[in-house]
Amino acid sequence: MKRKIKILEVNKLYTPQIGGIETIVQNIAENLKHQANIKVLVCQPKGKTVKEWVDGVFVIRCASFGTVFSMPLSLCFFPYFRKLSKTADLIHIHVPFPLADLACLLSGYQGKVIISWHSDIVRQKKILLVYKPLLNWLIRRADCIVAATQEQIDSSPFIRPYAEKCRIIPYGLNLEEYRIKGTILTDRLNHKTYVKALFVGRLVYYKGIGVLLQAMKRVEGCELFLVGSGKKEKDWKASAKEIKDRVHFLGALSSEDLKKAFSDCDFLVLPSVEKSESFGIVQLEAMAYGKPVINTALPTGVPSVSLDGITGITVKAGSEKELAEAMQRLTDQKELREQYGANARKRVENHFNNQMIMKQMLELYQSFTEKEKREGKEA
Fold first, then answer.
1. Which residue in 107, 1, 103 sits closest to 42, CA to CA?
2. Contact 246, 190 (CB under 8 A)
3. pTM value?
């Protein structure tokens, strides 16, 4: 019987912590656990070390003192990384995550390293000055860099010089999981005939929620539902006071209720304004339910997920006017929403089907572990 390859997935956090990258790591671990021996090394947001099995995946959550600048502070992460790396055939690090870069450097690990490039560091420029040499070391050290889109490579000054070792593997969805339906938004409507616009994401600066709320003031016949939480929530609730009868802050939802929200909305809005938004998995989730998407023309992969004039509308990032016009257009034109929605579902089925994506990821893992075996024999 052929031995399963041993993969160490490394990220900041893991489910039930909510986030796009956390969803991606969970997706890989759960879908490839039968084909590979996968362990997941992450940190606690705060608290003691926990070792547990989560849906058939062994997860080590290293103790941390808390989170500073979006990064958990953990000392025991380093010895755990070193110990687990000794038995791994391959380490897959999801970046940006400075703690993992440093752990890899200090561990002395000589095997194959794959990094998934999820986004550039955009706002934290002072931190980047310190982190940049370490990040560049990891990029050079990596045997392969995985990006979700070509635009992600082209727009990043960090990985663009290493385009020859980049591999494009999009994010995918298991469409069977997107059959849950409900009336979670309809039940909250103040105006029962109004169209339902949905935003899903952390309430942080780069998501463009300030622009979205200003745009909503120009839109008629529509109510906006925001799912998520974050530091700016209080400020944005205050700025939405004059349209509070048409804006609903729902906070964080369970996985099941979130799917109900996607099924119940009329369209999704992703108004992100910074390159920190590199893909936007929520676009796929709405599209899986046959919903059109309004996104922004960022230089990243965002507008290549939902296509302008085919599965939705793409507007200039930061433009309240263009965003309001797009929202009004989808609010007023039911047939257009249905046309874009049908195209959206087909696009997910044809290009972002999880079975196809996971096959590509497994083949990538196998190609590098087999390469290491060949190199070991030659040595």
1. 103
2. yes
3. 0.84
